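Ligand-bound model needed. oxa(dethia)-CoA.
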Amino acid sequence: MSKITAAITAVGGYLPDYVLTNQILETMVDTNDEWITTRTGIKERRLLKDSNKGTSYMAIKAAQDVLEKSGTDPKDIDMVIMATATPDMPVAATGVYVASQIGAVNAFSYDLVAACSSFLYGMSTAARYIESGRYKKVLLIGADKMSSIIDYEDRATCIIFGDGGGAVLFEPNEEGYGLQDEVLRSDGIGREHLKIDAGGSILPASHETVDAKKHYVFQDGKTVFKFAVSNMADGAAKILERNDLTGDDVAWLVPHQANKRIIDATARRMGLDDNKVMMNIERYGNTTSATLPLCLYDYEKQLKKGDKLIFASFGGGFTWGSIYLTWAYDS
Ligand code: UT7
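Prediction:
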């Protein structure tokens, strides 16, 4: 029997309607379109404005899109992995609720929390379950309501992040398509540079923490940028080398959308032209766990069976890595 590989067989996505443009941000904080565009590549981002709706709302929409496009009966889903940094609430996993809402009544589910690398790590996790032969349909969702943890008076962070959700279906493949190799890393040195101080077990919520705005994201952008540029490019370069690939062999780089300058540096290191780089940061900003699946969602029509894709990510923790995957279908 041939070896089972874990292939992506369908892609879905969801973006909220509200568009927060750089021009609107100019009226909220001391910033300007030119600074944001040249430093990050971002022009606008989407926000889920309804305060009664959480990350699960976007995850459910993205998952339903996958089910519909692939004609999958939700009862056949074995597992739902929910990659997110902004779960609906602590303790009760968001993925469990999402699985029930989409009718995946025979699945088990949990959340995978690794900041901006949640989806990348989730790809690795989904692949192992499929490769085991025991699970046939694993739904991997990446969604984040970043607006729920961003201080819209802090220009260092509010210009960067956006809300959104994406999802993919992983299934066994016997032709060898799917996940081929991975380089995944983490380093706790990053803990102080990108974090939310309060609301966890070290500093539970109190009037003082709320007054001090400690439930919002803090980022030391310069330091994170430095680590992101070198590690994301290193991971991608390593995976090329290990698989005897050059930039010419690669059809697409699927990079985490944190900053256009980080993406450009990674592409240059891989020897890739711009037309091989998936990019939607201009329209969505950094949607954290949703950036990678939303790239696939936007570019799906251009993907062909056999295309070699290199995924690369870097995020809080620090967490980072790269995955080499061959595309399994003509869109
Ligand atoms: O996805 C998770 C991982 N995250 C990342 O990978 C993000 C990595 N970091 C970055 O993308 C960049 O560091 C930022 C986009 C966050 C910031 O860009 P930067 O080029 O590193 O700017 P900076 O923080 O060094 O600030 C440069 C100047 C400062 O002014 P002075 O001190 O030179 O006078 C800032 O105060 O720009 C100022 N500044 C702003 N000006 C206008 C900072 N934020 C803004 C702003 N608008 N929004």
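The domain at 5-176 is CATH 3.40.47.10 (Peroxisomal Thiolase; Chain A, domain 1).
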